[in-house]
Amino acid sequence: MLVTYAPMFLMLFVAAAVSGLFFLGASTLGTKNPTPEKMTPYECGSESSGGNHLKLSVKFYLTAILFVVFDIEAVFIYPWAIRFRQLGWLGLEEMFGFLAVVVVALIYVWRKGALEWES
Amino acid sequence: MSLIFALSPLIVVTVGALLLMLAEAFSKNKEGLAVGSTMVLTAGGAFAGAVWMKGFEGADVESLAPWLIIDRFSLFFFMLLCLGGALATLLAGGYLPEHRLDRGEFYSLLLFTTLGAMILSAAGDLLTVFLGLETMSLGAYCMTAFRRASVRSAEGALKYFLLGSFAAAIMLYGFALLYGITGTTSLVGISKAMRAGASHGPGAIFALILVLVGLIFKVSGVPFHMWTPDAYEGAPTPATTYMSVAVKSGGFAMMLRVLITAFGDPQSMSWGSGWPPALALVAVLTMTVANLTAGQQESVKRMLAYSSIAHAGYLLVGVVAIMRAHEQATASVLFYLLTYTVSTAGAFGALILCGRRGAEAVSLEDLAGIGKRHPAAALPFALFLLSLAGVPPTAGFFGKWFIFRAAMDSGFYWLTIIAFINSVIGAYYYLRVLVFMYMREPAAGAPVATPMRSGYVSTALLVSAVLVLALGLCPSTSLDVAVQAATGLGG
Amino acid sequence: MIPLEAYITLSAFLFVIGGFGFLIRRNVIVTLLSIEVMLNAVNLAFVAFNRAHAADANAVGAHTGQVFAFFGIAAAAAETAVGLAIVLSMFRLKRSVRTDEADLLKN
Fold first, then answer.
1. What residues of B are in contact with residue A104 (Cβ under 8 Å)?
2. Which residue from B minimizes the CA distance to A114?
3. Is B21 an 8 Å CB contact of chain A?
4. Domain of B440?
5. Are A51 and A41 in contact (CB under 8 A)?
6. What's the pTM value of the predicted model, to 2 decimals?
């Protein structure tokens, strides 16, 4: 079993060695001349704004939670789709029942205003 | 047709819950929700009764197995859960507007939680057990956190949620091991594999331990009871009522199904190498710890939370007795759950009735002298407390009587004696509330509780009081029903 | 082919890591993550057992373990949603996500 994975481990080892060598070389051979401008965090060239401990709005959590919950429901459609022909009409009916429940939940979320970004 | 008829209790509650959820989102009027959800639950219970009367055998119903098993055992629990749920919705109809918590989500949450508990009681496969359990627990967590302005509510819900999910994960690992050992997830299939010799391996014993931890947690047995007083105290009182009544019944339904069906083989059900001794130890610890702690509480709500733990202990005595007296002990557990449901729902309802906005009745001092000032609120409270203490001729007396009889008949004399001593200790703290209500005067200048007025709460109290007296005066009919329900259950 | 024992060992390790994380960490978010790790350990065990049991892929019940894992994933997502909502409601009141600061309710 180990033989099968030998090239992968070799690759890992070589990659670690090469990148370690570069880091070591840069920090020992290079000259250092720090200025305040150089010490600011790199933000794609534009002026950096604010600290890195930014508080995220709670709206992100709400949207993320709703996304996860509705996204996961798709997992139940997947096995049904694979066995679509064998399951026949009964499977179709049951899938529509399931989707109806999900749609009711969606309507509820929409009516409650959880999908509005500005409120 | 017969399939839809057999499933009608579940369908009624599901459709009713979805419709009420939509109605709540589309309408500003919150008045009808309590009535609507009570009607849905009553209809669910009535359909379960109709299915019980009319019979439900048929190839269609068989085809649901092993996922859902419609038998007298699940129908009994359908009725019991709908009764507990309906009483809790009535209490919510009075409590929530009074305490400015009137948001309609509560009723949908309660209905979905009831649905989860119903699925749990009918589940014949580890998958449906898991689904029912999660549906029930998630709703209960949300209901605990319902008082959003209260830190206690949030803390209680957080503890309940964290420990509950932890226990569910442990039990689920036990399920995975069971599936690995037996190659099936149906409870009957597991039982067959166990009888064929799988129960002798170390894996099976490990799986049993993991599953037992989850089961004991869900019925709040010691040492996995720490969440109970916190969650029960933090939750709004109707949610507390519901959790101590319906969620606990759902937990016991799951325990009976899993232990008797999946672990019902002679090896797992024996005193030497199975679950009965572990459960007997838990029962003794639960009764003793809960009764001793309940006596020290100043908050009546917290005292009732410990009392519900103690009752779980008496019920566990009945579950242990199933080992030797199968039908009698199962029936006694079912009957006890019925008496416990009406007494506890009534006691919490009376506690709700004794307080109003800004002056909720919480501690013993709040209740001082209420028996003289407001006899109409104190009298039902006294009745339910006597029933919880097991004083004849109330329902609680016969509940305890049948459990103790079953334990004696199966030879567990020492367990019966411990349970009896505990119920005597238990009587102390119930009577202490009565002493405060009838024999104490409130301290000068102390805030006194004034009862609220609500038709919903009064209705719930009236129904519970009638049932407590009816079950106490002529228990034979409902006991027959419990015996019939118990016969359906087996390995 | 990796043997069943390897999967089960990995799953047991994951489960124990999650369990310890739950018991010793005091940050609610990390506690939620630990529960998630435990549930994923369960899913891994189910799928691994499924492969070991299913000799005939077309037989009835040949995919029970995998289906169980699907339901496990869905339930875990719902659990996280409810858990985060409860944590948020506590954070709004207490400005803290540490479990040892949830200490109002004592005997």
1. 18, 21-22
2. B25
3. yes
4. 2-487
5. no
6. 0.90
